[in-house]
Structure formats: structure tokens, C-alpha cells
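Fold it.
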Amino acid sequence: MATTSSSIDAADDRSVGSSAAPAGTFDRVLLAVDGDTDERVHGVAISLAAAHGAELDALSVVPMDVSVDHWDMVVERREDEAEAALDAVGDAGRETDVPVRKQLRYGTPAEEIGLYADGNDVDLVVVAEPNRSGLKRLFSPSNLASNVRDATDVPVVSVPTNE
């Protein structure tokens, strides 16, 4: 009986059937990318995935806003940029032996990233956070990182860029 008791005491504290990783570890990392995402951001996500032995998902969202009322050249251009960004992450992952699952969605980026994170057992989201000077910050006070934080309960790491 003592053996059974000690093995139960040593059991994982996670609830039965839970797929969440223990605090401080990640089983699945999501990298949100677009055509302007810096290679530095790729590197952070790939390094985190490699260090934790985690799966890496790369997600790019083609923005479908009020300026796009039907499938047109704007959407096709955005789609081409998104696919190129996903391919760049896939190439970087191959160089470091980190497999990358590439996903393309359409809609509002922060909402789609949040939905993907919540619906796919993601443990960490990595996004770029461009350096915004005074005027950009004044006219656009929110950014993708803060919008993603509002869209999901998953921790979000924002990587500063010089864009």
C-alpha cells in the first residue's frame, strides 16, 4: 500500500484529461506572422519551441477589413505575403530541426490568433511588436500584441522590432 500511496503523491498535479502544460513549460507555441515579421521574431519562437521540445505553429491571417468587399487583387496580394511569411518560418525551422505547422486564416488578425490559440491547446503566443514612435502611437494607440492579449487567456510574448 505504501508504494501505491507514494506513486500517487508523486503523480502530476494536472487534472486527468487536461492537455495544458505545467506552469513554465510549453508543449505548443504559436507564432503569428505577416509579410513584415522580422526574422528576429522567428528566432525567438523557434528557440522557445526548441528549448521546451514544443510543437511550433506558424499562423498568418489575411486581413479582411471594410476595404475588401469581395475577392480581389488586394486579397490575393495579402495572401501571397502571408504565404511567403509562413514559408520563411518553415525554412528557419528546418535549419534548426524544429518542425513548423503552417496555417493560413482570413479575418481580423487578433481575433483569429486568439481563436486559434484557444482552439488548439496553444501554451504560448509569440507576436512582433513594432517600435512605434509618438505619432504612430497617437493615431493608433493599440497594437497587435495588446489586441491578442485581449483575445485570449494564453500568455503572449511580444518581440520588439524596428519596423
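Helices lie at 2-9, 39-52, 73-95, 109-119, 134-139, 144-151.
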